[in-house]
Amino acid sequence: MKIYNVKINDQLFTIEQPSSDYNIFYVNRKNGTCCIAKDKDKNWIIEAQYNPSVNIPVEQIGRYLDETLLN
C-alpha cells in the first residue's frame, strides 16, 4: 500500500494506492470518502463515494496522479 498526501485548493487529501497492479485509488479512506479510477476513456471518475456531501476535485487529484505517479 502506497500513501500520498496532496494539497488541492487548500485542502489536504490522503491518497492510497492498494496495489501498483491497479490504477484504483482511495481518497481520504479513513473518513470514508471515495474511490477513484480511470474509466474506459482514460478519464478520472469516482468509482464509489461514501460521503456524497464532500466535494472531491476528482480531475485535479487525477491530474496529480497522472503527473506524479503514473508516468
What's the pLDDT, averaged over the residues?
85
Oligomer: single chain
Cα-to-Cα separation, first versus last residue: 18 Å
Provide the gyration radius in Å.
Answer: 11 Å
- The number of E-state strands comes to 5
- General shape: globular
Largest sheet: 5 strands, antiparallel
State the helicity in percent bands: 10-25%
Supply the helix-strand structural class: alpha+beta
Number of helices: 1
Q: What's the helix-strand series?
A: EEEEEH
Strand content: 35-45%
Unreliable stretches covering 5 or more consecutive residues = none
Strand order of the largest sheet: 1-2-3-4-5
Structure description:
The chain has one helix at 58-68, and strands at 2-8, 11-17, 24-27, 34-38, 44-49. By secondary structure, the chain is an alpha+beta fold. Helix content is 15%, strand content 41%. A five-stranded antiparallel sheet has the order 1-2-3-4-5, covered by helices on one side. It has one helix and five strands; from the N terminus they run βββββα. It starts with a strand and ends with a helix. The model has no long low-confidence stretch (mean pLDDT 85).
SSE topology:
Blueprint: E1 2-8, E2 11-17, E3 24-27, E4 34-38, E5 44-49, H1 58-68
Antiparallel strand pairs: 1-2, 2-3, 3-4, 4-5
Outline:
This protein has 71 residues and is an alpha+beta fold.
Observed structural traits:
single chain, 71 residues, alpha+beta, five-stranded antiparallel β-sheet, 1 helix, 5 strands, globular
